[in-house]
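ugh finaly. both done.
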Amino acid sequence: MPDARTFTPDRWLGDGDRVSLGETEFEVIHCPGHTPGHVVFFHREARFAQVGDVLFQGSIGRTDFPRGNHADLIHSITRKLWPLGDDVRFVPGHGPMSTFGQERRSNPFVADDVLAGE
């Protein structure tokens, strides 16, 4: 990408921060596991989350990157995302949208019945 320039962030986002895009405000939720600093953007009123590579329809993010951690990823999904509500729609970093409720019922990595057997 010839026109890409490097930059240094002037601030880092943390759990509980808020970010505005125009008049839309997103909550920042720190969800480590895929990478240590991964964050999810949640719009509470719209019941919508941008989750990146933390969660996919029918799968979860990779944890084989430097400082990735499978246990942290599972904890982030089940302790930070699931409590937001089954009705929350999400856009992953790749693939189709889903809802947290659908993934709690059917995702072979983080479904409630799969984790209950651990």
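ok and the 2nd:
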Amino acid sequence: MTRIVVIGADAAGASAASQIKRRRTDWEVVMFERGQITSYAACGLPYWVAGQVPRQDMLIARTPRQHRARGIDVRLGTEVVGIDPRASSVTVRTQDGQESIEGYDQLVIGTGALPVRPPIPGSQAPNVATVHTVPGTQDLVDQLTRSGSAPRRAVVVGAGFIGIEMAEAFLDRGIAVTVIDQATHPMVSFDPDMGAVLAESMADQGVACAFGQAVREVELDEAGLAQAVLTDAGRYPCELVVLALGVRPNTGIAIEAGLPVGDSGGLLTDRRQQVRDHEDIWAAGDCVETYHRLLRTTVHMPLGTHANKQGRVLGLNVAGEYATFPGIIGTAITKVGTAHLSRTGLTEAQAAQAGFDAVAAKVQTSVIAGYMPNPGRMITKVLAERGTGRLLGGQIIGDRVGAAKRIDTLAMAIWTGFTAEDLTGADLSYAPPFSPTWDPVQTAARRLLPTI
């Protein structure tokens, strides 16, 4: 019997295991998970903290019992602590410390990523949290809902996706929040001018913004709890701290086994998700580097969308079919309160670094027809290559539902090689409750035309 060993039971690993078992019912598929939860929606964790998602179980896409009912041997509380590619085996350790050797015919690595926790003095205090796993987030929710001792002030360190989503969560809870970041604007995956728009919106909604400041220390009280965050420019009192400084690939055991990794530490695979130079080892999700279609190199860009798609591709290939993962262009979307924001492709700085001669245009429009009730406001920025007119990137910030999701139009235009002229003439839908006569992304593309 062919034996498949899967390390990790979240998006990539569980998707791969399900695809394999569905097609090869006679194969043994063993999935090792060091925790007690499988297939959870990590992107939903901030909304659980906010109270928008009322219960933990609503974030679980498939339980261990459901996986087992489909024939997958799920082993919880069992961590893979070593990989031996030559022996085609892994070393596993249970929660009681017992170790054993498990052989495989094909190995699937879906170990995900780990939160970045720099050695900031005081950052190990019990009321300093990260939002990364269900148990860790449960601890945070417990602190927020504890009767009589819920925090009144919170500090979020980091103004990326998780950082601003946590700012919204604290606003929803009625907790005063300060967001600190050493960058001069939030969301460094946006251009600075668009980041400035977001910073203004956050401040207008009551978020205290401390940008351009490096954190030096988490100040502790006599009980060893965080009571303030100290930067090189100020002191910010609080009863709760959330570190939202990004993640790094969880590839320690893979590196020890001599598997190839890129500059980020993410595993390097081919388009089928097979680890380079290892015919019986595969990897997908937040532990890998992924090919960027515009930069033409591999990057670490952890997102649940990529993890699920890569897991599916991996599973199909292991099961004997053929599939490839086509790469990414960096499309993402989120919100903080009334600010809805999204991006795709390259920023101006990324385009310049990659050697493109790029031009940009930015327009402000209503989200829907301006004469309709609550038409909203959105700022759309697009980027194209001078000479060819090929679209390279786009960013949107709006204050109404329906604004940021328009990034998908730009994403598909970039994905398929559209020029600004192509997008300007594209047949997009129109009705006053949904859009102005000229869709904002087309208005922005049209603004580019004289400069290309």
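summary for the 2nd one i guess: The first helix runs from residue 11 to 23.
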